[in-house]
Design a protein that fits this description.
The chain is mainly beta. About 5% of the residues lie in helices and about 55% in strands.
Length: about 220
């Protein structure tokens, strides 16, 4: 869950410990520079709190956001950090970052929303809204699972998953339309062995006239 900051929230939490505290500087858009996010991670008995304060280029506090997830102990956190882009950098934490998730030219903020026991995670996305000069929580983008890959050139968002159980790789492609991520293609590749040959079954579905339709269904193989 996420919530707007309350001055009383931390007084209600016993035995809380700050385990990460850093400041990130970023460019809001091509014309506005030096926005700042102050980010702190606080562990309490049963939850981990993400405390975020955002300042504009005049060093004026424009917004505070608090995000919480289930408590993430030291061993769990170490396991998650091995998936981080910069796990050895003390000023970097993959739990928060800035990204233009909706390709509107303004930088948005993403804050981790959950972590599984396997180390995968999801994020809450807060989209910058020029009319209010605020970063507004967006459910549509936050519903996208896992770490996302963006193509600024194509204005596409990609997410993928591999199932070890049935050896299937799935990739989802979203296009951003009317400020919403719209599922555009699903590509699945299933690997299996038959007649001493390794076979690749590929299926591609694409959004056509509002419906997902199969546009490719092929099986290829090569000798083992």
């Amino acid at each position: 869950m996420y919530f707007i900051a309350s001055p009383f929230i931390f007084s209600q939490i016993n035995n809380s410990v700050s385990i990460f505290d850093t400041t990130l500087t970023f460019t809001l858009n091509n014309n506005i520079e030096h926005y700042v996010v102050h980010f702190e991670i606080i562990d309490s008995a049963d939850i981990t709190i993400y405390k975020t304060k955002i300042y504009d280029n005049n060093k004026v506090l424009i917004q505070s956001i608090h995000d919480t997830i289930n408590f993430m102990g030291k061993e769990h956190r170490m396991m998650v950090d091995q998936y981080s882009d910069e796990p050895t950098n003390p000023n970097f934490n993959s739990d928060i970052s800035v990204v233009d998730i909706n390709f509107d030219g303004y930088t948005d903020i993403k804050i981790k929303s959950y972590v599984t026991v396997h180390g995968s995670s999801g994020f809450n996305y807060f989209l910058y809204t020029p009319d209010s000069n605020k970063f507004i929580f967006n459910q549509d983008f936050s519903d996208l699972d896992g770490d996302l890959t963006l193509s600024n050139e194509l204005k596409e968002i990609y997410t993928s998953d591999y199932s070890w159980q049935d050896e299937t790789w799935t990739k989802w492609t979203y296009k951003v339309l009317n400020n919403k991520p719209i599922l555009f293609t699903i590509k699945t590749e299933h690997v299996y062995t038959e007649d001493n040959k390794q076979k690749f079954h590929t299926v591609i579905e694409q959004l056509i006239n509002g419906e997902m339709k199969v546009i490719k269904d092929t099986i290829e193989w090569k000798g083992m």
